[in-house]
## 1
Amino acid sequence: MHQPTAIEVAKLSLRCLNAALVSLGIERVTDKALAIPVLTDAVERGMISLAAIKAAVDAPVAPAVVDAPASDDFITLRSELRLGLDLLKSKVDADRANMTKDISILAAELRDTPAEPVDVSAAVASAVAAILAPFQATATPAVLAAVAASVPAAKVKARTVFDNCLYEADGEIVDFGDMEVSVWNDPAAPARLDDYVFNARYLHESLIALGHAIPRNAWLAGERSTGKTEFVTQLASRLGRKLVRINFDAQIERADFVGGNTVEGGDVVWKAGVMTQAMQHAGAIILLDEISFARPESIAVLQSICETSVHRAVQVNETGERIAVHPSVAFFCADNTNGYGDSTGNFSGTRDQNSAFVDRFSYTFKFNYLPAADEANLIYKRTGLAVNAATVIVKFANIAREKSKAGMLTQPPSLRQLFAWAEAVRDGVPVKNAFESSVVMKYPEDCWAELWAIFTATVNVAQFKKFLGK
């Protein structure tokens, strides 16, 4: 096909092209693409001129090239053109049919194939970074921290962040999965332990406490290693809240957690303590740990801070400044004695707390040790020790706990000691050596004989080794 001629033909209207086809004794077409190659070929064969095609009208039916009757050569050429047109039509029809079939197959495949997710996180992050760049270039770290702290919490249903939202009460099943909770997404929130199992009732009441405009305070009581601190830690983790843990002892003073004067560059300045800083952090949970060791003067300060009121604040005597507690900040207290001292002798140095202070905690939760099967499963998950061997360790621990209550041991074995024992034997330390290093040596010498007696009664070393595959 001669390219310039084809281009000129293509510029003409379909009506003009059909008139030219009719003048050649060829049927009209509905597709311009079919007429172009046929007429181009006719021009190149001398059957019609380009000028004649441009001047063609729809009326004439007789050939437009010669006045004399059509010669045999002309008739032959016209037949070839018709045949070519028919072949072209057939090819176009076949191509259309194949294309229709291919489109149908592709549509069916698309319907049956799940859409692949498109990761746009990098593009979004880049766009956001570009928007924030001018602001970050001029803002100080303090300003950036203030902006981050002012971001409101997201509201989600409890079941989206907590695995177990069911418990039984008064013969009925309580389901709080649809309860709305606030998730803060604070980068300072503690790490999550996926194997932690919440007490569903205490979780429900804690979420209710946190849901108030001024969060209600909660007091966690129970023996050590019953999970009080971990409960608050994992609650903060799943809610994306910063956790500030303040450990009290007989030596801690008001200046240690509230603040006090210090010398900087020759000047006396007041510096905020850990409590004063934490209580201004939006969404923070403050854990007052081992509060029964606190001095009475410390408790007096805490009463004004832990008051469930918009007026909760600390008064700075040194400067006269009043520092308010952020409305979203929540207080939890972890204590072995429930705030009323210790009559067992297991928690020497603890003090009976002011009832006015205890009353500032709306909820009180009594923590106990996990059921034996759950505790053995936890040891298995944390250390990888065989469940049968972990069950033996838990059996020892439960008997030792009873001996502790009876005053035969100064304290019950902690969960940390059980983890250490399990990890040691898992790593190849002989069973008795692991027990001595991880448990016995943590006690006063007058408890050693009792601990070894419990070990002998509960641990069959030969069988224990078989549990380890030895």
## 2
Amino acid sequence: MLVHIIADYGSGDLAFAEVVQRIKLYLPDAELIPVPVPPFSTLAAGFCIAQLGLNAAPPGTLIYHNVAPRLDDHAARPGNAGEGLAYARLPTGVRVIGVNSGYALSFIKDVAEKFRWAASPAEGSQFRSRDVFPQAAAAIALGLPSALGDEIDPGALPPPPSSVIAYVDGYGNLKTTIAFDAKKVRPGKHIRVRVNDREQEALVSDGTFAVRHGELAFAPGSSGWPVRHGGEVRWMEIFLRGGNAWDLFKKPAIGSAIAIA
């Protein structure tokens, strides 16, 4: 069983090792892949969940995610309570288990075949994703009938924000929530791209290497997935061929607004 662990512990952090160890205790045959996202970035987590969960995956694939800034209640939290553990089943057969926090489920809310609460407490440990949630996730993965609770109304989940940075990959490419539209993308046109207080000229392209070395481009990227009622969405990227667009724009945070002129 392939299990993606999407969390904001930090690349190579001890927390990843501890969670891997705990999940293996309950699912000894699982192949676990850590996927780090920036601290408290439910938007990046949601983007990764959709990219991995809505594209072709091996049978039995599970996504276990935990980015829980505990922003659902700003008061003091008795027992380290936080956002509840949710479950979703996607059309690909991938199962998604993790906290219902921020935008974590926003990209899959319109396509998931099932949304349920997991039969798991939302408190009991500061490190719930190690001490509380793995056993509940394993119960769901094993199909135990008592593992799931009430249904979740997907209409109550927030939609993803438009025209923002959703993810920054290892090359410094900025993956956006601007959907590719063949009617609007005019290859060869020069535009101005503004992120926060930084503005740069970019070339509109229909492919990553259709620009010169050292040139900033705005083009449909490698991320996207099928959508309801057929078709697919493909997300635009801002990339600097041979360089790092994230550095060029002074390392903007996930969720930073993007303006195109």
